[in-house]
């Protein structure tokens, strides 16, 4: 269908798309584009945009005009709509074949018309509007000073009914009407301000706003001074304890985009990694306890002190947990002033300043996963900042950019709760991956001011690598540091903590012990002694989880039997801002994982528990099919409406129930039986434990059943889902190798793929614990996770069942790899390793050489995109010289140069096994290529990859000569070397196996 027909057919829809929101922004943006592409003349524009005429009437005139202008104009009109409309509005429309490339051509054509300053203003109009809206006053000042504008021109531009973008357009229109000299003045102004951006160019904010900023800074500073886990009573402030976590761009994991350097705190908001310029929302995602709230808190504190984010004049911090408790409908204005900071001065002026300067404002939303309702973009559109709406509606419209476009937003969430609906609106996504090994060290030393204690804690972690692995998650690191006496007291033997449940039992004991220290009566029956507290808090935790409720009123506490004494134990803390704004006290658990742990305790210790509770906990589908499950445990927490809502939104709640199930598995393991036996009858414990084992086994079977039949000639392969990793973690918590063996007995695959599964050291410990029981060898593919050196060490116990290990992009350094290879040499079945995009240097090549010498059945070594130089290649060559089995060697993206290539070629020249060699992008020149030629003569090589090097004609001629006496080589890849098109042509003719 022609573009003209499309415009005609969709007239009503196009009209509605631009008019239904009531704002003229859409129409004006379309006009900007059409003007800049030269599709509308100035007269046309004036005929369409008649001030005072209804928006719909103006839009109709535009549609008529474009239709009469013909097919090409219609095509560009559709292109402009496509560019301007938000994705949700584009959905039902058909845009024909308007391609961006065409638009670029059109733009280039019109650029050639750039003769006068007025034409420049027209062709660059969309960009100029964006740039002008933040500097209207500055531009007007210059125009006034130069006599281009009169004061009444300025007033017309600055009419209060206009938004900043509209003011920018009116200014451009006025300038045009004044003629070429005014246009030149404006362009000059752009040049000057952009060459020398300085704060002095920015208008100074009004007095009220400055004092509001001061108040906001001091509120934010007071709120972020202490971490809740340090309770405010501790002498450690956030400043004292904050330790950098590992931040990474979510998209940094593709092969096309190698790993970027570590991100700093300010990069979260900064430009780096921006995927969608138009979007304002940055997502920070990470597991529970990985430090998301703490990261935001640090950002808030530093902003409040004026240490970072200087571009943002006001920062509004929100907690989704608290927003969830907001029952009222609010306007954006109320949301800011009520939830963050109440202005003492002229509220209207302050709010107007916020509206007028979106780029100076930053909103942060902590814990999107804790919002009762999951993010949805089918939510009612809400664009008016002064109109009231339910808080989730405000929040979703803010994140999408329908409300307060241009304001930067940072939102944190656990990964499970972020669906494609939100991803569409993201500027970028940053992953928070907990502490690095150096971070753990640093945290422990900050936590313990006494260096001898810190050293002892660190030594004890080094001797218990499973616990060290757990400490990568800051919340576990905090517990371990807090309970250092218990930790140091239990030695290095069987009793030392290994699992997450062990760690939480340790803190449970620690808090209980604190209360009884005077009496000193904590014996073997310490759980029984505090059973009432555990049950009260457990009930509260459990009901809260079922209702996605994390903040509790005093009444709710009472209903669950929580007493003052229970509160004094320290597991519950007062909610900061809610408690101060109302008379009623509000409480929350120290951390969400603590709430999950108490819920698990409740399930285990409650002797009157419904028998179906455990199966339902382990089977998310069963929960969804039986809404009664929620109701059964919600009680008072939910109104009817909320209950209905919640049943539709289990995405956020599932991760918490999974953590709870993990704790239930741990508590019902044999190793804690004697501890619980005093509180629960043995048969009840046994029954519950059996239920868990059955659930785990059934859960696993389900995963095994979903494995597709292998395509003929391919290996039977399982692509594991995150749910599989969770089950593995539950099995690990049980610490019973019989259970691990039995559940794994039916897994018969040759390849287990766990890419992009958020696998860190903790998951590696569990994986190795379970996978070591596999009967048949597997290829274990863990690419694009964050295994790290500690994770690698955790994997060693299962290395003997792996014929191949794939660890691409996992932040592994020489130290981790040395341990892996040391063990690998002893594993008969271990034959392949892929380590693309890690942090390997020449310091690890010696160990690979040793592996190659020792293992005469080793097949494939891939070390692409690391930092191996000629020296490393030389060491590797020492091993290659003695190896009689290697078939694949990949060194893509290192820096081995000619020298390295020569060493490798020399070592491999007599190989009777090598079939594939890649030295892509290694700075190899003709000398290297000539050294490789004898390899080609070798009868086994099939593919030689030399793309992106600096090989010239001489080098290629050597290769051609070698190919003359070879029939096994299928291709030599040479694209991106130093050859002219004529040489390429000539050499391809000479040797068709060369691929340029
Ligand atoms: P999340 O929001 O991801 O669940 P939190 O930020 O609440 O995790 O972290 C839980 C606890 O872990 C904090 O209360 C604090 O004790 C500790 N913690 C987290 N991140 C850091 C950090 N960067 N520096 C020091 N301690 C941290």
Automatic annotation (TrEMBL):
Cellular compartments annotated: Basolateral cell membrane; Cell membrane; Cytoplasm
Topology of the protein relative to the lipid bilayer: Lipid-anchor
Organism this protein belongs to: Hucho hucho (huchen)
Protein name (record): Nucleotide-binding oligomerization domain containing 2
The keyword Protein transport is annotated on this UniProt entry: no
Signal peptide residues on this chain, from the entry's feature table: none
GO annotation, biological process: defense response to bacterium; defense response to virus; regulation of apoptotic process; regulation of canonical NF-kappaB signal transduction; regulation of DNA-templated transcription; type II interferon-mediated signaling pathway
Pfam family, one: NLRC4_HD2
SMART domains: LRR_RI
SUPFAM superfamilies attached to this UniProt entry: DEATH domain, P-loop containing nucleoside triphosphate hydrolases, RNI-like
GO cellular component: basolateral plasma membrane; cytoplasm
């Amino acid at each position: 269908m022609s573009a003209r027909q499309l415009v005609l057919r969709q007239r009503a829809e196009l009209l509605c798309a631009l008019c239904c929101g009531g704002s003229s922004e859409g129409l004006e943006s379309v006009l900007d584009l059409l003007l800049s592409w030269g599709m509308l003349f100035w007269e046309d524009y004036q005929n369409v945009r008649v001030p005072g005429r209804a928006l719909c009437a103006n839009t109709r005139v535009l549609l008529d005009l474009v239709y009469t202008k013909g097919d090409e104009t219609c095509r560009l009109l559709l292109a402009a709509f496509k560019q301007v409309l938000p994705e949700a509005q584009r959905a039902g429309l058909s845009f024909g074949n308007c391609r961006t490339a065409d638009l670029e051509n059109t733009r280039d054509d019109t650029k050639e018309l750039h003769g006068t300053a007025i034409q420049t203003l027209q062709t660059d109009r969309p960009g100029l509007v964006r740039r002008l809206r933040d500097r209207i006053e500055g531009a007007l000042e210059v125009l006034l000073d130069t006599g281009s504008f009169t004061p009444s021109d300025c007033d017309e531009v600055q009419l209060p009914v206009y938004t900043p973008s509209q003011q920018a357009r009116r200014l451009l229109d006025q300038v045009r009407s004044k003629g070429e000299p005014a246009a030149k003045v404006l362009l000059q102004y752009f040049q000057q301000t952009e060459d020398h951006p300085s704060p002095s160019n920015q208008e100074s904010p009004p007095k009220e706003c400055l004092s509001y900023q001061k108040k906001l800074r001091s509120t934010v500073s007071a709120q972020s001074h202490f971490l809740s886990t340090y309770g405010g009573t501790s002498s450690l402030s956030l400043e004292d304890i904050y330790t950098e976590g590992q931040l990474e761009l979510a998209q940094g994991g593709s092969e096309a985009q190698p790993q970027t350097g570590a991100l700093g705190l300010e990069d979260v908001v900064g430009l780096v990694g921006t995927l969608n310029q138009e979007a304002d929302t940055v997502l920070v995602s990470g597991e529970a306890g990985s430090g998301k709230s703490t990261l935001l808190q640090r950002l808030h504190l530093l902003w409040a002190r004026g240490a970072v984010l200087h571009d943002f004049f006001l920062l509004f911090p929100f907690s989704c947990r608290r927003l969830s408790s907001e029952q009222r409908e609010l306007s954006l204005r109320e949301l800011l002033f009520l939830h963050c900071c109440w202005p003492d001065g002229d509220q209207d002026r302050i709010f107007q300043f916020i509206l007028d300067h979106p780029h100076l404002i930053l909103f942060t939303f902590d814990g999107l996963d804790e919002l009762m309702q999951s993010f949805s973009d089918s939510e009612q559109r809400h664009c008016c900042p002064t109109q009231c709406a339910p808080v989730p509606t405000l929040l979703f419209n803010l994140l999408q950019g329908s409300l307060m476009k241009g304001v930067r937003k940072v939102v944190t969430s656990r990964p499970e709760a972020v669906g494609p609906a939100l991803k569409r609106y993201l500027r970028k996504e940053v992953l928070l991956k907990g502490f690095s090994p150096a971070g753990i060290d640093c945290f422990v030393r900050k936590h313990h001011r006494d260096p001898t204690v810190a050293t002892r804690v660190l030594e004890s972690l080094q001797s218990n690598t499973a616990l060290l692995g757990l400490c990568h998650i800051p919340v576990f690191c905090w517990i371990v540091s807090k309970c250092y006496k218990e930790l140091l007291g239990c030695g290095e033997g069987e009793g030392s903590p290994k699992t997450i449940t062990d760690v939480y039992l340790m803190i449970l004991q620690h808090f209980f012990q604190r209360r009884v220290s005077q009496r000193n009566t904590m014996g073997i029956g310490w759980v029984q002694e505090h059973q009432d507290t555990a049950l009260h808090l457990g009930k509260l935790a459990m009901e809260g989880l079922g209702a996605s409720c994390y903040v509790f009123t005093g009444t709710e506490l009472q209903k669950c039997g929580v007493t003052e004494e229970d509160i004094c134990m320290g597991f519950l803390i007062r909610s900061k801002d809610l408690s101060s704004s109302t008379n009623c006290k509000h409480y929350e658990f120290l951390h969400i994982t603590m709430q999950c742990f108490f819920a698990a305790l409740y399930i285990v210790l409650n002797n009157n528990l419904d028998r179906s509770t455990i199966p339902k906990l382990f089977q998310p589908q069963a929960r969804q099919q039986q809404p009664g499950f929620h109701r059964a445990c919600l009680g008072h927490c939910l109104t009817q409406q909320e209950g209905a809502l919640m049943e539709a939104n289990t995405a956020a709640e599932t991760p918490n129930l999974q953590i709870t199930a993990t704790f239930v598995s741990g508590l019902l393991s044999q190793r804690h039986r004697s501890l619980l036996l005093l509180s629960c009858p043995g048969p009840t414990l046994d029954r519950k434990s059996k239920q868990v084992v059955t659930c785990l086994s059934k859960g696993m079977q389900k995963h095994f059943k979903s494995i597709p039949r292998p395509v003929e000639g391919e290996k039977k392969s399982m692509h594991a889902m995150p749910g599989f990793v969770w089950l593995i973690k539950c099995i690990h918590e049980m610490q019973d190798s019989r259970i691990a063996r039995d559940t794994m007995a039916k897994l018969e695959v040759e390849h287990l793929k766990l890419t992009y599964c958020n696998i860190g050291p903790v998951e590696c410990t569990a994986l190795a614990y379970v996978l070591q029981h596999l009967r048949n060898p597997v290829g274990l593919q863990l690419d694009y996770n964050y295994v790290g050196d500690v994770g690698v060490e955790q994997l060693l116990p299962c290395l003997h069942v792996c014929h191949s290990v794939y660890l691409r992009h996992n932040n592994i350094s020489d130290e981790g790899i040395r341990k892996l290879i040391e063990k690998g040499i002893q594993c008969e079945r271990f034959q392949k390793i892929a380590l693309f995009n890690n942090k390997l240097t020449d310091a690890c090549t010696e160990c690979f050489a040793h592996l190659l010498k020792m293992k005469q059945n080793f097949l494939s070594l891939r070390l692409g995109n690391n930092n191996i130089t000629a020296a490393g290649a030389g060491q590797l060559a020492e091993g290659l010289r003695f190896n009689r089995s290697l078939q694949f060697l990949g060194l893509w993206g290192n820096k081995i140069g000619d020298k390295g290539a020569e060493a490798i070629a020399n070592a491999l020249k007599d190989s009777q096994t090598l079939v594939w060699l890649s030295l892509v992008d290694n700075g190899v020149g003709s000398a290297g290529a000539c050294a490789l030629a004898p390899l080609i003569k070798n009868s086994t090589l099939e593919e030689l990859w030399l793309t992106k090097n600096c090989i010239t004609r001489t080098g290629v001629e050597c290769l051609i000569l070698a190919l003359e006496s070879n029939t096994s080589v299928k291709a030599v890849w040479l694209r991106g070397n130093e050859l002219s098109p004529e040489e390429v042509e000539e050499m391809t003719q000479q040797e068709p196996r060369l691929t340029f």
